[in-house]
Design goal:
Oligomer: single chain
Number of domains: 2
CATH architecture of the largest domain: 6 Propeller
CATH topology of the largest domain: Neuraminidase
Distance between the termini: 31 Å
Number of helices: 12
Number of strands: 37
């Protein structure tokens, strides 16, 4: 949501399907999960009368439909379905999932700017313009068209690796930026009196949705041919931000001519005319997560309010003073601030200058008005056209749906071929490695368990922070020679930290042998470190043949007896029931490794799981609360979200 003059225009700052009703054509035989390809109308909140677009202004207090704001006609042919099958840039979410927008003036006309795609959406990196004068949507740059039609790779990270097929012959250098979820850091600003677009960070179109550290500016005075004649398609790469981020929230301070950005581990100002970042080093703000939130800029009172996913805060634009607002009485009325609900559509957030109130939209015709001076809030229902609630509770990305359904801090869902488990484990390992890079610091102690699903992490994690790495479980030998000892050593070498390993099996022959093994010096030293582990990485096995390394390692009568005692799954050796509760069963005394209590004491526990047959086991692990993050693939995610299990918790 962005404020211009005395009229407030509501603009989506994540899932723009929340603000645009879409009517896409559906290719034969294919179900489209999110109607987000053709935009049949845009919605504006008209609180006061001002001349922003050509149509007659509707009555105050109403939502209005803006004619001729379909995005679909401006989309490239390569993104549209046709008789030839799935198009090159096709994805049913297209650029609307987790993508930012802002209200901007281009050639004297107000309208919406949209730039998105990324992660599990689309490789289409086009910048779109939806003018409010009814003249129709336009592309200001893009798309990038890969010569080999391959887009999903991590090297290079931020740009596509080849010159686009539609670039003029003068372009000989590959520098076009990848598509990305832009969240709340896509802004209309002015740079040396030129209208421009600012973007920082975002979830890139790579398998793991890697967060970007890049800062980009796009000069809105350039024409489409001028932008496409440049290697970077018009996006000038500027100074690196203090750190990378998947999601962040930014606001434009025209008084000081700077962007203020609230990221996952910093709050800083970017001065575009000097191309300089200034880290404000605010120490008392909550950090460590990719918060999805939006910004309200009180330019008169010199305050920036950040409200959304687990955040409610205000930053003084002049003194840089930070105040946490999560204890305020109105916070209970803002869905998502209290945590546990994951990312959600919007919220559309803006500052109403005349009323001196924050306006929050989270779906439907209702608006929440927050008076920060009085610490009060009220909900009003707008008239005019009916505004649809966000589909599926506001989340269209399965990663976000998993977060919302199970209260996870982290979730990554890979939409990749699943028939080759070796390749699948490689991609899951790359995704897990990226999450670990984002959440682990040098002060953490990282614990790694053994599971087939974790085998790709060591290869993917070529660089890391210098933290201690501890072996969580004993080992099971594999034909390829890989085991948990090698995994721990690889990760420790990547960061230069110490590796704490030991030689012992994951499952001993009996409880007496297990007790003897635990008394061995190297095993005892590693076990003594387990209470200090802050971040753990585990696998999830179902209690069935071929679905758990522990199940396959024990005798048939032990398998059956353990099942009769209620075990349905194991989290790297921690045996759990259908509700995810650790069970004290005889087999547990033979397992060399982490306990349920030790898992519960960690700051974060990241699970990597694959295989649709494990759906009920994974669901049990998530419901039990021992796991706070999940890396998986699309078909298993769908089973978790939409399939009602025959027994146990309902995961819908």
């Amino acid at each position: 949501m962005a404020s211009h003059g005395s009229r407030v225009l509501l603009v989506g700052k994540k899932t723009l399907a929340s603000f645009f009703r879409s009517v896409p054509p559906r290719p034969a035989g294919r179900q489209v999960a999110l109607s987000a390809l053709a935009l049949s109308f845009a919605l504006t909140l008209l609180l006061l009368i001002a001349s922003v677009f050509a149509q007659t202004s509707p009555s105050p207090g109403t939502w209005a439909q803006i004619p001729n704001t379909q995005l679909y006609p401006a989309m490239p042919a390569e993104a549209k379905p046709g008789p030839g099958g799935t198009p090159e840039l096709w994805n049913p979410q297209h650029l609307l999932a987790y993508s930012g927008a802002d209200v901007a003036k281009v050639n004297g006309v107000w309208g919406f700017l949209l730039w998105g795609g990324g992660h599990a959406a689309t490789p289409d990196n086009s910048l779109y313009w939806l003018p409010l004068d009814g003249s129709g949507a336009k592309r200001l740059m893009g798309p990038y068209l890969a010569p080999d039609k391959v887009y999903n790779y991590a090297d290079p990270v931020d740009t596509y690796r080849s010159v686009s097929r539609n670039a003029p012959p003068t372009v000989t250098v590959a520098a076009a930026p990848k598509s990305r979820h832009t969240y709340s850091s896509l802004l209309y600003i002015e740079v040396n009196s030129k209208p421009s677009v600012f973007n920082y960070g975002g979830s890139l179109y790579v398998g793991s949705g890697q967060g970007s550290i890049a800062t980009y500016l796009f000069d809105l005075s350039q024409t489409y041919p001028q932008a496409m004649a440049r290697p970077d398609m018009g996006w000038t790469l500027k100074a690196q931000a203090p750190s990378n981020a998947v999601s962040s929230s930014s606001g434009w301070d025209p008084v000081r001519r700077r962007v203020i950005t609230r990221s996952r581990n910093f709050i800083a100002a970017y001065y575009p005319e000097a191309d300089r970042w200034e880290n404000w080093n605010i120490q008392n703000a909550p950090y460590g997560s990719d918060f999805q939130a939006s910004v309200a800029m009180d330019l008169v009172g010199r305050k920036m309010y950040v409200i959304g996913d687990r955040l409610a805060e205000v930053i003084d634009l002049d003194s840089k003073a930070y105040t946490d607002l999560r204890g305020k009485p109105w916070v209970a009325n803002v869905r998502g601030v209290g945590g546990g609900t994951g990312y959600f559509a919007g919220p559309g957030v803006s500052w109403h200058a005349r009323a001196k109130q924050i306006v929050v939209w989270t779906g439907g015709n209702d608006l929440l008005l927050i008076n920060p001076a009085a610490d009060s809030s009220k909900t009003i229902t707008m008239g005019g056209v009916t505004v649809p609630a966000p589909p599926g509770g506001g989340d269209t990305d399965p990663s976000a749906q998993l977060q919302a359904a199970f209260g996870l801090a982290h979730a990554v869902v890979l939409d990749i071929p699943e028939d080759d488990h070796v390749v699948l484990r490689q991609h899951l390992g790359e995704a897990a490695a990226q999450v670990l890079r984002e959440i682990v610091t040098r002060e953490d102690v990282l614990g790694l368990a053994w599971a087939r699903s974790l085998s790709g992490i060591g290869i993917a994690l070529d660089t890391f922070v210098p933290c201690a790495v501890v072996q969580l479980t004993g080992a099971l030998s594999r034909p390829d020679g890989s085991d948990v000892l090698e995994l721990v050593r690889r990760v420790a070498r990547a960061g230069g930290g110490p590796a704490h390993v030991y030689y012992a099996p994951l499952v001993a022959a009996d409880a007496t042998t297990a007790r003897t093994l635990r008394r061995q010096p190297d095993v005892a030293r590693a076990a003594a470190l387990l209470p200090s582990v802050t971040v753990g990485v585990v696998g999830i096995g179902a209690w069935a043949p071929g679905l758990s390394t522990i199940f396959d390692a024990v005798e048939p009568d032990t398998q059956q007896r353990t099942a009769r005692l209620g075990v349905v799954a194991e989290i790297s050796g921690v045996l759990i029931d259908a509700q995810g509760r650790p069970l004290n069963v005889p087999l547990g005394k033979r397992v060399i490794g982490i306990t349920g209590d030790e898992l519960a004491g960690m700051r974060a526990v990241l699970a990597v799981a694959y295989g649709d047959e494990k759906a009920e086991a994974v669901r049990a692990a998530l419901h039990g609360g021992l796991v706070s993050g999940l890396i998986t693939h699309a078909s298993l995610a769908r089973r978790l979200l939409y399939a009602t299990p025959s027994d146990g918790p309902n995961g819908q």
